[in-house]
Amino acid sequence: MKQILSVVIAISLITISCSKKQAPTLQLSPHSWDETNKYQIYLDTALVGTHRLIYRSLSEPEPLIELQSISEIKHATAISRDSTILLLRQHNLKPIFSSKTLLTGGALMTSEVKYNNNKATIKAHLPHGEKSIDIPINANTYDNDQITTILRAINLNSNEEKEITVVIGLSGTTIPMKIKLVGDEKVKVPAGEFECHKYLLSFLGREVYIWYEKTSAIRMIKYFDSTMKMTMELL
Amino acid sequence: MTILPSLILFVGIGIIVPTLYWTIFRKRSLLDKISAWLWSLTGFIAFIFFPAFLFRKHWEKAMVIAYNKFWFVLGVVQMDNNFWETLAKLLVIIIFITIAREDGRAIFTSKISATIFGYWVGLCYGIGEALFLSIIGYIPVLNRIFGINLFMYFTTWYTVWERAYAIQLHAIIGALVGLGFYHWYGLGKRWWLLIFFTFGVLYHELVDGLVIVMMYYPRPAFVKFMNAHIYTITLPVLLVIGYLLLFIAYRLSKSKQKINITGG
Q: What gap in Å lies between CA A177 and CA A163, rounded to an integer?
């Protein structure tokens, strides 16, 4: 009886200690962070706009990366402009602050997100008014506009999948996102031909494929949103 | 919250619409047996059942996150939503019958009374939805409590217009459930309550399912058209379809007098 009891206690203790473990954080290997990459955007086969990713290293008050992302899409009579500035910590790419401005369909929306250890404070200016909210975050939470940057530094084995949480400032919410390395491919874009890692991002039913070059620069070469039929290619 | 649309929503839709409805229909057929306080109590229960049943959004959200495929969201998650929203209306009527006893049951022996009272229950549930969505949109921290995201929801003229349709959609579902109770108490066909309950669920699916189609397949021309004219064409057409279904269901339901004559 004592033996059975001790086995039960041992199993319970193992179970409890296992359940307390947090999901492992992403393994990031930061690279150099001073460059500008420009992309052209297609909807189906129609060229509709451009996207720029600008990285800048900052050393004060700590090693940081300033990431600017600017997209402009002209489709039919509508013009959409999306501009974001993000501050990330260099050693782990954790977000500190993001500021986003979105002009779409004649409506202007802005959001600011301040990241702390366990919460993100969101303030949004939406077409009909202002909203603010604090949302809980964890060690695997990142900003929506840095996702392609995480892929720049992530280490995944083939077919390995990680789940992260993504903050979307304008929606005042977080969503789960899965990242999977689905294989290697050679990709041809206006900037040339590149050997790439191919990643799959899955979130809320959408699937986005992203190709990252395998060489030391590790730039995003191509992006394909299968739901929106939107493609971005490095220029 | 913008002031004038909010005023219209809370006073116009929240108070004037149900008051007018009660004033017009309280004397129809057997409904004069129901006291004003019982009308109010039933309406209030239906109203409060919206937030009471809203916690289902936690597991519906979890289901969407776990398996976000069009067919699953349309056929399982949305059907779960339809089921609970129709069940809420059914439970309100059961509570009413329990409180009102003989008079309550008597209401559902008349086709017209059962339909009008069912419509009243659905109407008040829809008003509860309209007002609570506005409140949750205004106080974003409530999003997490109820498991929904209304961070971008504001009470504007568009939402007032949309809610004016939505409360009628709920009212139609309530009327269908009411007709189901008529089949139980008036015609002695208990299983028909289940059939009318299912009609209510499926009508709900038609309306919300169309929105899900728009979300997952935004590119086809007919979806773009429906999306671009959602307030002026899509919603009115769905409402007309609802009233048409209710009219057909009402006309096809045998009236009790006819049964007596045939039976005699």
A: 6
Out of A126, A132, A175, the one facing B152 most closely (by C-beta) is: A126
pTM of the model: 0.83
Q: Distance (Å) from the C-alpha of residue B170 to the closest C-alpha of chain A?
A: 27
Q: Which of B68, B70, B154 sits opposite A128 (nearest CB)?
A: B154
pLDDT for the residue numbered A34: 84
Q: What is the pLDDT of residues B153-196, one digit of tens each?
A: 999 999 999 999 999 999 999 999 999 999 999 999 999 999 99
The per-residue pLDDT for range A17-60, each reduced to its tens digit, is 444 444 555 655 556 678 899 999 999 889 999 999 999 988 87
Where is B92: in which H helix or E strand?
A: helix B78-107
Q: How many C-beta atoms lie closer than 10 Å to residue B26's C-beta?
A: 15
Residue closest to B13 by CA, chosen among B143, B168, B153, B149: B168
Quick check: B154 and A176 CB within 8 A? no
Whether residues A173 and B149 touch (CB distance < 8 A) is answered with yes
Sort out which chain A residues have CB atoms less than 8 A from B144's CB and list them: 135
**Phi, psi for residue A155 in degrees, rounded to 5:** -115, 110
Instruction: Give the number of A-B residue pairs with CB atoms closer than 8 Å.
Output: 44
Q: Please tell me which residue of chain B has the smallest CA distance to A125.
A: B152
Q: Which residue of A has its CA nearest to B153?
A: A128
B63 CB-near residues (< 8 Å, 6+ apart) = B72, B76, B77, B80
What is the nearest CA distance from B101 to chain A, expressed in angstroms?
Answer: 47
Task: Kindly give the pairing relationship between strand A107-115 and strand A129-136.
Answer: unpaired
Query: In which residue ranges of chain A is pLDDT below 70?
Result: 1-32, 216-217
Chain B residues whose CB is inside 8 A of the A75 CB are none
d(C-alpha B117, C-alpha B21), whole Å: 10
Question: Choosing among B141, B145, B152, which should be mutated to test the A contact, i.e. which has the most A CBs within 10 A?
Answer: B152
Q: Give residues with Cβ within 8 angstroms of A189, minimum separation 6.
A: A221, A222, A233, A234, A235
Does residue A30 have a cis peptide bond before it, meaning omega lies within 30 degrees of 0?
no
Q: Cα–chain-centroid distance for residue B254?
A: 24
ipTM: 0.76
Task: Answer positive or negative: Cα dihedral of A151, A156, A161, A164.
Answer: negative
